[in-house]
Amino acid sequence: MMAENDLLRQGLEKLGFAAPELENLAKKLEAYCHELELFNSAYDLVGADTHDDVVVRHILDSVSAVSELRKRLEPVFASGAVPLVADIGTGGGLPGIPLALAMPDVNFMLVERMSRRCLFLENCKAVLGLENVQIQCEQAERVALASFDAAVFRAFRPLDKKMTKVLLRVVKPGGFLAAYKARLDKITEEMEAIKDQVPEYQVVPLNVPFLTDDGAYSRNLVVISK
Hints:
This protein is of the alpha/beta class. It is 43% helix and 19% strand. The chain has helices at residues 4-14, 21-43, 51-63, 66-72, 74-78, 96-102, 115-128, 161-169, 184-192; strands at residues 84-88, 107-112, 133-137, 148-154, 171-181, 202-205, 220-225. A seven-stranded mixed sheet has the order 3-2-1-4-5-7-6, sandwiched between helices. Helix 1 (4-14) packs across helix 2, helix 2 crosses helix 3 and helix 3 (51-63) packs across helix 6 (96-102). It is globular. The model has no long low-confidence stretch (mean pLDDT 93).
């Protein structure tokens, strides 16, 4: 087993982060890992057995999409605006908090309906000094229409028609949804069920450092443009 910082640092290097950015990011992400582990039993934040699990399956998984998200947000940057991205159903702040730490020039809204988890998120915001993060303790259905340039979510449940409608309504015209998903065959099956709402989508493979790929742990980003 690697030392705690080594696994995270090496993962960030594999994802293309360079010094001095890497050192500060690794320090902040390690602090976030500490908060997750400290409060996990009380708030049921993540499924992970070890620190390495938290780093790989949650932190590196979240930031593996940074380059793809930045590329798709380029029109907003080009307009001179600061992109606003929602993390819908953020839970313990995943992927929103790692993304906010890795993309300090983007504003994030963490949307979570459970008040106790919102308390945890507020604590993380203070501990990590996240000036580019706001927290909305609300159901996704009550988020204002067309508020965001993009919405991200780690979707462990299949997208259904109701949730797809909710998610599309919070994104501005020209914006996009980005769902962290697993195996391609499951994605195809899932998207077939909502093809009347989402006739077109893109699947972008994600390379998550140190994630065991036995077929069950493959990671992809499903991008739906509005």
